[in-house]
Amino acid sequence: MMSGVNPADAATRAKSRRGSLIDSTRMRQLIQQTPEQLTATVADSGYRAEMDLYAGRFTGAELVEVALSHNLGREINSVLGFCGGNLGDQVRVFAARFGYANAKIVLRAVFNEVDVDDVAHNLLPVENEDNGIWLDIIKNNSTLHEAAGNMREKQYRGAFKSLSEESTLSDYEDALDRHYYSNALKVVSRKGAALGVLRSFLKSEIDHRNLLNLIQGAAIGMTPEDRQSRLIVGGSLIPKSQIIAASNADLDGIVDLMRRSTRFDASAFEEALDQSKEMFSLDPVVLWLQSNQQAVLSRMSYLHPVSALPIIHYLSSKVQEVANLRLIVRGREAGLEPELLEAHIL
User: What is the pLDDT of residue 5?
Assistant: First the structure.
């Protein structure tokens, strides 16, 4: 193995790190703090090195946000460093999504003609050496087609083969999502219990993403053809043979499709959907899907303790911690009420 660490040791290290994350009780206590108190608390919660790194250029919420992003990148690289051999390959399947997320940032910046200095100031700060190649693409390209064609990593360029100069930003983003999951499923398509577990997790992610896309499409009146174009092949809840039917279904029809699966809590999902209808907002559905996905990952991690799942569970939990902290810091800086913020954190 590359690092000399076996899967059991790697899983134990990941579980230990997950245990050091901010728990839900503490996270809700942070909502009550002032922006100034939050800055100090976040620094003391494992992010001081990154906040010191950026303190010369940023203050307040901006400082916290950029430090959170940099810390997450460092942590991903650190975890990959103690996952060798086949285990490392499996964890990289999950970690690859962060590169795809950066590709989306680049495409949005090019499409919206955002100055590269503005992107370097916050979204892809220059202090992080990994961001250099992304910033160069923004600097040297003026159209989506050019930027996509000049992405240096072959896996990103391959995502855009079917797109043309007339393709929209949404087309490019959807293509990246489909390409990520297509590649990920290919990596875990070989036989073996460990790969089977990871494959099941990826399929559940596709299911949740497809379900959200269907709900969004139905809510805003997208045509069945447009809804179908946003779906990702490879999930379990909506097999390829049912994609057309799902794309034509209204909200009640989508719920009926979900009821056919014994592995999906259609009743709880319907409750979240009813809340969304009452609030005229998709937030309850989005939060339920996110919470359900975390529960799926937690359960699979528990059932398969010596696999890539406990490590991926930690990384996913770390991502959620960063997202929650970012939401709290932004919200408190903007003067949002604690009750509103608490309703939107996991």
Answer: 61
Residue 179 identity: H
What would the two tokens of residue 235 be? Answer: 């999930």
pLDDT of 154 over the 80 cut: no
Instruction: Write out pLDDT tens, residues 190-213.
Output: 877 778 888 988 999 999 999 999
Query: C-alpha distances in angstroms, 196 versus 72, 97, 199, 235, 244?
Result: 27, 19, 5, 14, 27
pLDDT tens per residue across span 43-102:
999 999 999 999 998 999 999 999 999 999 999 999 999 998 889 999 999 999 999 999
Domain range list for the chain: 1-83+308-346, 95-187, 191-307
**CA–CA separation, 86 vs 344, rounded Å?**
37
* In the chain, alpha helices (H): 7-19, 24-30, 35-42, 48-54, 60-81, 85-111, 116-121, 132-140, 144-149, 154-157, 169-187, 193-219, 224-230, 243-248, 251-259, 266-279, 283-303, 309-333, 338-342
Q: How many CB atoms lie within 10 A of CB 68?
A: 21
d(CA 227, CA 67): 37
Fold annotation for 1-83+308-346: Topoisomerase I; Chain A, domain 4 (1.10.132)
What DSSP string describes 79-126? HHHT--HHHHHHHHHHHHHHHHHHHHHHHHHHHTT--HHHHHHTTS-T
What does the pLDDT read at residue 346? 73
Cβ burial, residue 207 (10 Å; 0-12/13-18/19+): buried
Confidence at 2, pLDDT banded by 50, 70, 90: very low
Phi and psi (nearest 5°) for 6?
Answer: -85, 165
In angstroms, the CA 238 to CA 310 distance is 27
Give dist(CA 168, CA 61) in Å, integer: 32
Q: 119-141 as b/e, with b when 16 or more CB fall inside 10 Å?
A: bbeebbbeebeebeebbebbeeb
Nearest to 31 by CA among 316, 279, 344: 344
